[in-house]
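Schema walk-through. Below, the input block comes first and the output block second. Nothing else is stored per chain. Lengths vary across the set, and this one has 429 residues.
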Amino acid sequence: MSANPGPASLADVVLRLPAPGERRIALRVTPAAERALRQGHPWVFAESIRRQSRDGAPGDLAIAFDHERGFLAAGLYDPNSPIRLLALQHGKPAQIDERWFRSRLGEAVAARSPLLTSETTGCRLVHGENDGLPGLIVDCYAQTLVLKLYTSAWVPHLRTFAAALQQEFPAERLLLRLGRSALRFPELLHGLTDGAALWGPELAGPVTFLENGLRFEADPRLGHKTGFYLDQRENRARAERLAQGKSVLNVFAYTGAFALYAARGGARTVVSVDISRPALEAAGRNFDLNRHVPAVAAAEHATLVEDAFAALERLGRARRRFDLVILDPPAFANQRAGVKRALDAYTRLTFLALGVLRRSGTLVFASCTRQVSADAFFEAVHLAARRAGRPLRDIERTGHPLDHPVRFKEGAYLKCLFAELEYAAASSL
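--- output ---
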């Protein structure tokens, strides 16, 4: 899938990282945690630990045992997180070394082989817990890989992990991104910085890659997440198939990926709305990268730098109407306490979107709020539509793509509704 003459040297900052401690931490866990680990769950929370053999540092290897002192799981210990154990190995003991990492990475890369083709050079190679490597992700943008660490527990193992990744997917460069939890403890990073190259040349600006034959730029150093929302690839392709001859409103557009797919699908006009001017400037560049595609060149693309809720309200008052409205908002809740607020936001967005949707229109509405279940999201949208007097009929409901697998309950976050106005409601308006 990816080939280079030979792997680049690891950066000095990686070579100087401290090795993980040799002493293991023994953990005795609650019966509920025992059951979860036997089922392959990747997390042990602090309150689930009944006893441990010693205090540990981030990245120490810890072994969880059952009530009969039988092996349950081994993984990385993080004393600074509510999730104290990130389980790597379940069921039977194994040596967590470069060979082990290569095996786990090889499985993940092989699972993506249907995706990485001459038409698509961007995907998620490692989806954290769902690929058996909790606390990190690896995204691929052609010959640039981006490793994002969500915990400093990975720092002592980074040299070994990066060497294994080089062997399994020898791209031109590997960039490091650090999540908020990792950045909270700079003394544990040992010189690692957000956006640095762990191997290969440093990156000064965006990279380009292909997705289903369309060319996009991504900024892995400064962009949201790792620079692009790779998880929406299949939903963008579905939206493309609905766009022929239509006027499209793309809300929370970011760098315009849904808009560009709609243009290639034959949309007459596309309006992209986002509060970030730099993001919409990048959307314009993405359109420029694809002007050789006749349908993209023919589509009229306009951008609005505006808050999404305010823009929808203003467009509704101005009686602007669109055949296809796409909503792809950010997560509205990061904790369970925010679920009601998130559902209220989805309800309000549904009302506003239906206010600018033509009587024969189609709504595409995605949610990436992990704390809101798919059932609760779909029910909230449909209930809001009925209350607005514009009930919807499902075309399709979708979830996670192949490169974002779900292997445990908490791993599910993405859901998307494709729906059209019911005929009776549409014909009466």
